[in-house]
Amino acid sequence: MALLVAIFNECFKNCYFIPSWKEAVGIGVPKSGKPRNLQANQPSERVWQAGLIHTLYTLGVADRLILIIHNYINNGEFTFRHENTYSSKRLIKARVPRGSTLSPLLYLAYTNDIPRPQTGDHVALFVDDTTFYFRSFSVGHIIRAFSRPLTS
């Protein structure tokens, strides 16, 4: 256990993430009724990495922690597995790895600067989902709200 703690401490001290810790395996999940068409279970969430790093600086996150996060999200690799067959390794681009404790926090930091509407429209942020919605007793009002560009 002491050796593992020493390895973690050295990684953090040097802002380094061991490459094998940044590898992911996507697993093919058959679509119902269509066993030959597989849908990949994505090993990561789509995020503009440079924008995330900028946001972390804007939020006042310590430089050393940002360097560790930058090393963590960059140059990750994934393979796709179907039964016992693996694809060649591919670089993960514009993504934050899924399944770690840190990933939802990074996504929340990334979406933290989404403007909140002032016009009665609503924004709901939850882990890796963003939803714009409207509430009204009038269907006509909702239709007009959806017809309006989101930038107004």
Automatic annotation (TrEMBL):
Pfam families: RVT_1. Residues 46-136 form the Reverse transcriptase domain. InterPro entries: RT_dom. One of its GO terms (molecular function) is RNA-directed DNA polymerase activity. Keywords: Nucleotidyltransferase, RNA-directed DNA polymerase, Transferase. It comes from the Eukaryota. This is Probable RNA-directed DNA polymerase from transposon BS. It comes from Eumeta variegata (Bagworm moth). The gene is RTase.
